[in-house]
Amino acid sequence: MRKMNKFGLAASLSLGLVIAGCGAEEDNAGNNAADNAGGNNAAEENNAGENNAAENNAGENNAAEENDAADNDGGEASGNVGEELDYTITGIDAGAGIMSATDEAVETYELSDWDVTASSDAAMTQALADAVENEEPIIVTGWTPHWKFSSFDLKFLEDPEGVYGEAEDIHTFAREGLEEDMPEAYQVLDNFQWSEEDMGEIMMEIQDGTDEVEAARNWIDNNEDTVAEWTDGVEEVDGEEISLVFVAWDSEIASTNMIALVLEDLGYDVSMDPLEANFMFQAVSEGEADAMVAAWLPLTHEHLVEDYGDSMEDLGANLEGARTGLVVPEYMDIDSIEDLQ
Ligand code: PBE
After folding, report:
1. Ligand 1 center to residue 102 CA distance, Å?
2. Are 100 and 299 in contact (CB under 8 A)?
3. Residue 22 pairs with which residues in a beta bridge?
4. Can you list the residues of the chain whose pLDDT is less than 70?
5. Helices 250-265 & 32-46, crossing angle to 10 degrees?
6. Measuring from each residue's beta carbon to the nearest atom of ligand 1, which residues come in under 6 Å?
7. What angle do CA 39, 123, 131 make, to 5 degrees?
8. pTM as predicted
9. What's the pLDDT score for residue 80?
10. SS3 string of 27-40?
11. CA pair distance 42, 21, nearest whole angstrom
């Protein structure tokens, strides 16, 4: 059984944030899955703020529709989109790299009228779901792999200035000394590589209501050959403790639960601690945690790798072709971040 909260204050702070955004009052000592799953559902109850925002938009949306009509007559879409949205981009946790990138986008594209609200992945997707249900406009900080692209018709806004970079890879990092201390786990972490589709399967199942550990287990059961490649020649261990850290982004909830199970199947006693992004890097760099599979590079977590990367080991990409940017529903008639000017 996985354990939580090795990180005491940092972990509970982070959980506090996640929970504050979500209202999942699961026992901290309980299984992560419960907490995070709570996080997903709970978005509904707790994003009072978000929902209100959505309602406000609804109010504005009537006007928006009229404005759209005007647009079709050759009016300027952009000004109206700003007004419809109260010049608000719906963000996620303040520590996420995509939030810094969005601040930069605001500067680069001269969007000084716009605010980027911080919330959480769960709150952002709830706001997105509410907007899509009512065909209201919304702009979110978004990324793939993420289940929202399977659940809703969405598009990335073009980013001609390349603020969000090109395709990103998700890297695995280990603390210094892990290779000597836990060669078996190190080997598996080093071998771990999968695809956007793989990660998406777990994310989608969780989103459809399956407990995250169960969703990860189902993926492992359905992909025995892939997992066998990662564990090929690796000896089993006898209850050695290993700690993984992650951030409660849906993509990382999927990957971390999955790799944790693979390590458990090898005999490890795995703890998983959700932290804010900088604490996740810090924990591995200071050797408080053993590893993480959640570093987005070259751009999204570049600043964190600059701060912490020298005292940890980059085991390379576990997933290639990820992407971040500003995301809107297909029905919005803007295509580029420049349209927000
Ligand atoms: N994300 C998902 C993270 C990396 C993983 C894009 C929200 C971030 O922006 O830091």
Report:
1. 12
2. no
3. none
4. 1-79
5. 160
6. 92, 96-98, 143, 249, 251, 277, 296, 300, 324
7. 135
8. 0.80
9. 86
10. CCCCCHHHHHHHHH
11. 8
